[in-house]
Amino acid sequence: MDDNKLAGEESRRAVQHQSVKSQVEGDVNAEIADRASQDPPPGEKQRIEQVAGQFRAKAVDEVVDTEREVGRSRSLARVSQIIDYVFYLIYALLAMRFLLALLAARSTAGFVQFIVAVTNPFYAPFRAL
């Protein structure tokens, strides 16, 4: 029985707290709206425009800097992709040479000679192994 009383009291307090909170929020929002609708004094209006101009200039500068960084990043990403592509091509050619050697392909065949000629510079450091 005490648990039901306690739960009822707690729910009543929660509802009361929510209504007080809503009323305070409404009062604060109304006060903010009232102050925002009033014209500021002439000196303050000039200061507000000056600060707004400074913020606008900073925002534009930041956007320009960000665009430059994005452009630089794109260029570096493109270079990185090209380098990756070249290395994948070299790996593929070396793998093909390995497979041709594994399958004992005829060394007089034109394709085998082409693969050997292209991969010799990359294969040379490993020849002694």
Explain what the structure shows.
- It is a single chain.
- This protein has about 130 residues and is mostly helical.
- It is built from three helices and no strands.
- The longest helix is centred in the middle third of the chain and has 61 residues.
- It starts with a helix and ends in a 6-residue tail after the last helix.
Task: Provide tags for this entry.
about 130 residues, mainly alpha, about 0% strand
Radius of gyration: 38 Å
Question: Which regions are unreliable across 5 or more consecutive residues at pLDDT < 50?
Answer: none
Content of β-strand? under 5%
Order of H and E elements: HHH
Distance between the termini: 88 Å
| Percent in helix | over 70%
Number of strands: 0
**Sheet with the most strands?**
none
What is the molecular shape? elongated
Structural class: mainly alpha
Task: Write the topology of this structure.
Elements: H1 2-37, H2 42-102, H3 110-123
